[in-house]
Amino acid sequence: MYLFLFMDNLLRVSSTLSTNDDAYQLAQDGAEHGFGVLAETQLGGKGRLGKTWASPARSGLYCSIILRPQLAFSEFPKLTLTAGLALCSAVEVLLPDVAFGLKWPNDLFSGGQKCGGILVESSSNVTNDDPFVVVGIGLNVNTTPDMFPYEIKQKATSLHILSGQVFNLAHLYNSIHDELLTRVNIHEKQGFEIILGEWRRRDILFGKEMQWVTREKKIITACGMGPNENGELLAKDRNGRIYEILSGDVKLAE
């Protein structure tokens, strides 16, 4: 990390390999619920399934927030959906005239293009007296088309591209941070059902033909039925078989 600055409940850095790695170490060292790491750029931004997250300097929001949820450890996997809903809700308030949606389990979309993603990593020791979760957020904010790597230019968008506006990244971080803690509190106090209902209303795969690439690289085409009460994605193929998807990559059928 370079040029770092500790502020109230936040570590700001100019550059780091991965904010998730930094936050995970801070959580192991005892950082409290809601503590965040915010970087101007990442040299090795992490995405789901071992993918990388492109992090052009000072154009996107690259942050990780530590959670110590008052939830059973078995509830932790559902926090990916809770975090995705928080991100979507925050940008909906910011840009009420832009339609946003969620793609299971962790992607923020608008107009068929991806503009953000979530990576949730939890402490591996279920017997830990104070288990934690790190919520990594990558959001294309002031990113212009020329900043995207060639291979994702046609698949990615940003808040700037969608609105023509330029956004203050620190203010945006505060909005998303507060919304995340609010949604986690709802999850804790009122249950996952409340979160799930709102998530389903933003589901871009529901009722659509989709493709699921399993860990064994097998491609299954099915119709999205939305996540169930455990956060697993349900999908029905043409033979009527229903899959409960726990992992792997999903996308709209081409």
TrEMBL record:
The keyword NAD does not apply. It comes from the Bacteria. Keywords: Ligase. Coiled coil: none annotated. The keyword Ligase applies. It holds the Pfam family BPL_LplA_LipB. GO terms for cellular component: cytoplasm. Residues 1-188 form the BPL/LPL catalytic domain. GO terms for molecular function: biotin--[biotin carboxyl-carrier protein] ligase activity. InterPro entries: aa-tRNA-synth_II/BPL/LPL (IPR045864), Biotin_CoA_COase_ligase (IPR004408), BPL_LPL_catalytic (IPR004143). This is BirA, biotin-(Acetyl-CoA-carboxylase) ligase. It comes from Desulfocapsa sulfexigens (strain DSM 10523 / SB164P1).
